[in-house]
């Protein structure tokens, strides 16, 4: 494929980030975009593509024009209404923002359409595309990290975000829509989840009539390989600067993530007890070489050209959603463990 033509479905902040990323890549061009609000679409086109894309007033018209090879879908998860299935049927490769839906029924419909069409699908789990995450994943896979045993992480912010985000029918809540990033990072490193129990509630914003989603949550997850994760989220933290962090313990290495792109690796080789030689412990600071959103698009478009393997495919979109929905269901059931299998 000499030139990859990209279409954008949704013109919010995250697609502006993706538009910037793809336009850095050689042989890639944003050629079309659609938003149900034509003025927003035209404004986005002027600001983020230099006016170089064709703006469509209906999604179907954009598909029928046959001017795109790839579609970036960044709309509220509860707003999907068959558009992804229609694009897949046209042979268009897809980048879907997370979560891909708010129910397993919709997620499975999307996944079936993508698999039946044979198109590639990347999920917008950008935390997989950071230097520290990729390094640790490689160490786990090749055995140099030893057995993974525990992850403790949090996703702390403080904002009202968009109106749709506060609507459970469109956004699904912080646990499902936002902290899924941490849950996916745990899946990326530890593999399939087995059981989850947790709690979620609206404790800070319940006085606001249009804020009817959770603003605190905490889950404990057991993975099929025996590893455990403890993950918390809150929309009641520092109003100026949020905090997204995690510590991952493996048999031979301890990794502390600070945000997305920086981490400290403590390579202790599995040495334990009072006889440990401090000089044998190797500490390494690891930072991402490139922006994780740039890396996500480079990986996706490289996979389309056959030079890379997708780091987050449609199965990850389905299983990541299954995990956070199970955590939410556990809360509704008073914290009772839920099978994720």
Describe this structure in words.
With 341 residues, the chain is of the alpha/beta class. The protein has 10 helices and 15 strands. A 9-stranded mixed beta sheet has the order 14-13-12-11-7-10-9-8-15. A hairpin with a 3-residue loop joins strand 12 and strand 13. The two termini are 38 Å apart. The chain folds into 2 domains: 122 residues, 3-Layer(aba) Sandwich (Rossmann fold); 189 residues, Dihydrodipicolinate Reductase, domain 2.
List the defining traits of the structure above.
single chain, 341 residues, alpha/beta, Rossmann fold, Dihydrodipicolinate Reductase, domain 2, nine-stranded mixed β-sheet, six-stranded parallel β-sheet, 15 strands, globular
Q: What's the arrangement of secondary structure elements?
A:
Layout: E1 4-9, H1 13-22, E2 28-34, H2 38-48, E3 54-56, H3 59-64, E4 70-73, H4 83-89, E5 93-96, H5 104-117, E6 121-123, H6 131-142, E7 148-157, H7 174-178, H8 180-190, E8 193-201, E9 216-223, E10 228-235, E11 243-250, E12 253-258, E13 262-267, E14 282-287, H9 292-305, H10 314-332, E15 338-339
Parallel strand pairs: 1-2, 1-4, 2-3, 4-5, 5-6, 7-10
Antiparallel strand pairs: 7-11, 8-9, 8-15, 9-10, 11-12, 12-13, 13-14
């Amino acid at each position: 494929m000499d030139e990859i033509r990209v279409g954008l479905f949704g013109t919010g902040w995250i697609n502006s980030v993706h538009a910037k990323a793809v336009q850095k890549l050689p042989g890639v061009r944003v050629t079309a975009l659609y938003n149900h609000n034509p003025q927003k679409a035209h404004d986005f086109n002027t600001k983020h593509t230099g006016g170089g894309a064709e703006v469509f007033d209906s999604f179907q018209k954009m598909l029928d024009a046959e001017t795109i090879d790839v579609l970036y879908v960044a709309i509220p998860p509860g707003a999907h209404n068959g558009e992804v299935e229609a694009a897949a049927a046209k042979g268009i490769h897809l980048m879907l923002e997370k979560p891909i839906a708010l129910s397993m029924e919709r997620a499975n419909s999307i996944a079936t359409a993508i698999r039946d069409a044979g198109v590639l699908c990347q999920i917008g789990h950008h935390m997989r595309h950071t230097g520290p995450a990729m390094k640790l994943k490689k160490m786990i896979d090749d055995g140099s990290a030893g057995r993974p045993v525990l992850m403790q992480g949090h996703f702390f912010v403080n904002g009202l975000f968009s109106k749709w985000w506060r609507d459970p029918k469109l956004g699904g809540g912080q646990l499902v829509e936002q902290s899924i990033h941490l849950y996916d990072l745990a899946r990326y490193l530890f593999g399939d989840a087995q059981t989850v129990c947790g709690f979620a509630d609206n404790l800070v914003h319940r006085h606001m009539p249009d804020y009817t989603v959770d603003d605190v949550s905490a889950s404990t997850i057991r993975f099929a390989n025996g590893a455990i994760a403890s993950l918390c989220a809150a929309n009641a933290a520092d109003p100026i600067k949020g905090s997204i962090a995690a510590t991952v313990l493996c048999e031979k290495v301890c990794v502390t993530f600070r945000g997305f792109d920086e981490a400290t690796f403590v390579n202790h080789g599995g040495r334990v007890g009072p006889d440990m030689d401090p000089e044998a412990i190797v500490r390494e600071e690891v930072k991402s070489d490139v922006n994780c959103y740039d890396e996500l698009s480079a990986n996706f478009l490289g996979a389309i050209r056959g030079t890379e393997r997708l780091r987050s495919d449609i199965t990850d979109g389905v299983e990541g959603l299954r995990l956070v929905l199970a955590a939410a269901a556990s809360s509704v059931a008073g914290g009772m463990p839920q099978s994720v299998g």
